């Protein structure tokens, strides 16, 4: 039997997310990103397609490295303006039953005590469908906006993240015991104080003395996602992450990365399949190959490769506007996204080569074809490379998701490679089939009362 493919829609509470410039296409409605109807309609489309989740990216800061300004960023809406991702979720949860929601939050700027409450609240309101994409930030512009001279050094940000997670686990997993909440009206006992525990934390970065403000939510700890592909990021993910997002390079190098991540998880006392690995892609789908190619060519006329370059410039901290099209680029060491910088350096990518890669405004690989050819490629990534699923970015919205749901999903279902109905239960149970809360072998489970 074919392995079941997992699917997240990859989006952001902004106009231009990954495939830049396509907001100008006459059929694109991403300029309506700041309306509830835009998001509730998307959520219903994804649930119709049995997507596992909607993964909502976020940044703190602006892309101001390219040309040392926000001129192009503002004109092309390169993740600016960008609204809060968490506030979208309750509205979408109200019009769906099963769709999961992975929200990005930067721990470098979120007080952990308040963030623990916010995520518990979200897990309650969604009935256990909340996930958190753990990020530590990579934009110096964000650090300056938060009153700092610069962000912490790359590996130190992960050291901070380890301490942050330890504190959160104590709140989510250890402060309230199972059974602490009684809801006993006759006995006038809502919660048993003997089963609610004070948390004291004295770490290298954070201190806390208090009680978790929320009763346990369905999952207690939200499903944990992480996207770091650097050596330090992988070590962090092997300990904490349940879903890991990796870049889609060539299949051989990606296969090695997948094997490396799973081996590191096993070294942490987990199972290889305790992590679900996703790669980011875009898809332009038609009823025929010719129709898909015609659609891609149409999209290309509206895309902005230069906007994609400006996005990438801030991702690795290099101002490409200072270089000629074929000049060798001095990548140096990066305090931003190290894995992206290392890939660009290893491939000696010039400005011309990068612009060619960003033809559709994005560095994500784009599948162009009919349903069968797109399904073939997705299955190849799962069966030959070993990934579990995909983060599907939008191109022209809403039609890119509608086309995928109407054409590719039935093709995958006919092959037995995609579910035909949702399983009941929380997001974690849907992904792993082992219950709502963290398994005992996860690091966070060790913080439960009496563990």
UniProtKB/TrEMBL annotation:
<keyword id="KW-0285">Flavoprotein</keyword>
<keyword id="KW-0288">FMN</keyword>
<feature type="domain" description="Luciferase-like">
    <location>
        <begin position="31"/>
        <end position="388"/>
    </location>
</feature>
<keyword id="KW-0560">Oxidoreductase</keyword>
<dbReference type="Pfam" id="PF00296">
    <property type="entry name" value="Bac_luciferase"/>
</dbReference>
<dbReference type="InterPro" id="IPR036661">
    <property type="entry name" value="Luciferase-like_sf"/>
</dbReference>
<comment type="similarity">
    <text>Belongs to the NtaA/SnaA/DszA monooxygenase family.</text>
</comment>
<protein>
    <submittedName>
        <fullName>LLM class flavin-dependent oxidoreductase</fullName>
    </submittedName>
</protein>
<keyword id="KW-0503">Monooxygenase</keyword>
<dbReference type="InterPro" id="IPR016215">
    <property type="entry name" value="NTA_MOA"/>
</dbReference>
<dbReference type="InterPro" id="IPR011251">
    <property type="entry name" value="Luciferase-like_dom"/>
</dbReference>
<dbReference type="InterPro" id="IPR051260">
    <property type="entry name" value="Diverse_substr_monoxygenases"/>
</dbReference>
């Amino acid at each position: 039997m074919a392995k079941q493919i997992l699917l997240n829609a990859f989006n952001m509470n902004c106009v231009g997310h990954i495939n830049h410039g396509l907001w100008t296409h006459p059929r694109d409605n991403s300029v309506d990103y700041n309306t509830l109807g835009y998001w509730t309609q998307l959520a219903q489309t994804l649930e119709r397609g049995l997507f596992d989740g909607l993964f909502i990216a976020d940044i703190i800061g602006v892309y101001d490295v390219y040309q040392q300004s926000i001129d192009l960023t503002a004109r092309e809406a390169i993740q600016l303006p960008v609204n809060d991702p968490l506030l979208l979720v309750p509205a979408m949860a109200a019009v769906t039953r099963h769709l999961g929601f992975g929200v990005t939050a930067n721990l470098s700027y979120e007080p952990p005590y308040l963030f623990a409450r916010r995520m518990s609240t979200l897990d309650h309101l969604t009935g256990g469908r909340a996930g958190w994409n753990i990020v530590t930030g990579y934009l110096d512009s964000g650090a300056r906006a938060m009153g700092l001279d610069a962000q912490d050094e790359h590996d130190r940000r992960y050291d901070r993240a380890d301490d942050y997670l330890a504190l959160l686990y104590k709140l989510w997993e250890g402060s309230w015991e199972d059974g602490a909440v009684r809801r006993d009206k006759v006995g006038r006992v809502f919660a048993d104080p003997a089963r609610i525990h004070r948390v004291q934390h004295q770490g290298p970065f954070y201190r806390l003395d208090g009680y978790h403000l929320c009763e346990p939510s369905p999952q207690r700890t939200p499903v944990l996602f992480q996207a770091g592909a650097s050596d330090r990021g992988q070590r962090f993910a092997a300990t904490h992450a349940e879903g890991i997002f990796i870049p889609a390079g060539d299949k051989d190098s990606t296969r090695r990365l997948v094997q490396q991540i799973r081996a590191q998880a096993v070294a942490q006392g987990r199972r290889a399949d305790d992590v679900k690995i996703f790669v980011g892609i875009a898809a332009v789908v038609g009823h025929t190959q010719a129709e898909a190619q015609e659609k891609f060519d149409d999209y290309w006329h509206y895309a902005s490769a230069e906007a994609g370059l400006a996005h990438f410039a801030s991702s690795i901290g290099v101002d490409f506007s200072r270089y000629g099209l074929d000049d060798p680029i001095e990548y140096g060491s990066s305090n931003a996204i190290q894995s992206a910088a290392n890939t660009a350096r290893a491939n000696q990518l010039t400005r011309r080569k990068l612009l060619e890669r960003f033809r559709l405004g994005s560095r994500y690989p784009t599948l162009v074809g009919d349903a069968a050819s797109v399904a073939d490629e997705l299955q190849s990534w799962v069966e030959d490379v070993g990934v579990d699923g995909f983060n599907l970015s939008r191109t022209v919205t809403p039609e890119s998701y509608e086309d995928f749901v109407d054409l590719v999903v039935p093709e995958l279902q006919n092959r037995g490679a995609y579910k035909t109905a949702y399983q009941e239960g929380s997001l974690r149970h849907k992904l792993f089939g082992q219950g709502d809360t963290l398994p005992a072998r996860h690091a966070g489970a060790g913080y439960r009362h009496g563990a």
